[in-house]
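Reading a protein record of the kind used here takes little practice once its layout is understood. The fold follows as a row of integers, each naming the local backbone shape at the matching residue. With these conventions in mind, the following record can be read line by line:

_____
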Amino acid sequence: MRKKKTTPNESKRIPKGRTVQTRDEYIAGGYPKPGYEKKGNYRKGVVIDTNELDELAIVVLITSPKGKAISKGAKERYKPYVETKDSEGKPVRIGKKFIENPPKKDIPAETVCAIRKDCDKYESNRKKLNDLKSRRKSSKKK
């Protein structure tokens, strides 16, 4: 019996490690940051996974000392919470709410891998990532 050839369920356009800019109120469960009502997209996030529909799984970056450091000496930190939905319950995609940063601001693959491993420790994050990966182009054509 022959095995069916499968293609990886990853975006061809957005690589892992790409950073995006957004606002706290655009993230699921987020609320506006006091004092930043008139400022632009102030929150940075890193893409840790994608699917072929260009939907993203992001981890929001923070500057609080309570977060885990991305690398030694780095100002940016993160909390291991994966976000796959925006404030309206729709999948996170590059667009009006989530703006892609230039490739020179990407985070190295080793760092992304470490962040992903840290996030995989939590059941809720694994469930969100499995839901993201289960959505494919072939299932949308029906």
Q: What stands out?
A: The longest helix spans residues 123-134. The chain has three helices and six strands.
